Amino acid sequence: MISAKDFIPSKYTHSVEEGNFQWSAPSNIALVKYWGKKDNQIPANPSVSFTLNNCKTITKLAFAKKDISTALNVTSNSFSFDLLFEGQPKEDFKPKIQKFLERIEIYLPFLAAYHFTIDTQNTFPHSSGIASSASGMAALAMNLMSLEKALNPEMTDDYFFQKASFLARLGSGSACRSVKGSVVVWGNHANIEGSSDLFGIEFPNAIHDNFKNFQDTILLVDKGEKQVSSTLGHDLMYNHPFAERRFAQAHENLDQLISIFENGNLEEFIKIVESEALTLHAMMMTSMPYFILMKPNTLQIINAIWKFRTETKIPVCFTLDAGANVHVLYPENVAVTVLQFIKNELVGYCQNGQYICDEIGNGALLN
Ligand code: DP6
């Protein structure tokens, strides 16, 4: 089994003075949710997600070796980087990046030897309530791996992507599912070969055509700052009265999804996905302190989807992440009808009528 130690590199064979890379990495939407973690970003239960295609972060990483006199003084944590968001310096993002670099330095020992300029932008509107930490951390991890590959060109592609996901996880857990593949599993699961708590893997078994080009229309219900961050929410799963049962349930749901992905049973798919979304929010409502991230319009949308599904028998469902926005999931062959339904009946519940059409994608790309 692969352990974290396997990602500590031996001596690099090449030296690189300066250069730049640019990677884009997508967001992802979990079907079985990651909610609760142990030390070092180890998930309390396995999760699985669809990789998105349009919602992504594009990050350019420029790097230049520090001069020798500074380099000699290099000690751990003495990272030097500038951070730009949409071309403008963004000081308030820096502490998160600083912490990320500290966490991953043991795996990328070259970090303190360079000055970095990290220039990042999202394709989705700023403060849309769409988490940019998954796509953002994944895009940064890809760039850092490109630099490590330049220092060690012998590196295999498998190692490259696995370590990129491993590093992204240390930035934000769900980010490890934004690296490679369209259906990604993160976390040990007895019946999924190669699954690991340390990184995401492409779902290795058969996937029915019903899930090819699956659509995700994201309804922006509330774009405000969340009252409770995901990181805090995860912590509240410690000593949560239902935690152990919930973690076991995630294993069971993933087990069921293995057959559902293979046989294409959308009715069963919907049951698991909607139950997971509501369970996630049930965990929030039953932690101490308790909190609610759904808004009245979140519930209006859920009810409208249920009514539409009952009346039309069209296999459309919802999922939620840690916020009020609703992800509407449906197969490509019903896209025209569902989009019309969204425009007619759901857009009124969105803040400023805003929604984003996305679909399943393939992971990070070198631009
Ligand atoms: C509800 O990955 O944002 O979206 O590891 O603390 O950065 P950190 O948390 P994060 O949590 C995501 C939670 C979720 C469910 C999921 O994506 O699986």
Could you explain the architecture of this structure?
This protein is α+β, with helices and mostly antiparallel strands. It folds into 2 domains: 4-205, 2-Layer Sandwich (Ribosomal Protein S5, domain 2); 215-359, GHMP kinase, C-terminal domain (Alpha-Beta Plaits), CATH 3.30.70. It contains 9 helices and 14 strands. The protein has helices spanning 68-72, 94-104, 133-151, 157-171, 230-235, 243-263, 266-285, 296-312, 335-346; strands spanning 18-32, 37-38, 42-43, 47-65, 80-85, 88-89, 114-122, 183-186, 200-202, 215-219, 317-320, 326-330, 355-359, 365-366. The strands form 3 sheets. Strands 1, 4, 5, 6, 7, 8, 9 and 14 form an 8-stranded mixed beta sheet that branches. Strands 11-12-10-13 form a 4-stranded antiparallel beta sheet. Strands 2-3 form a two-stranded antiparallel sheet. The longest helix is centred in the last third of the chain and has 21 residues, at 243-263. The radius of gyration is 21 Å and the shape is globular. It starts with 17 loop residues before the first strand and ends with a strand. The mean pLDDT is 95. Bound molecules: ligand DP6. Ligand DP6 binds next to helix 5.
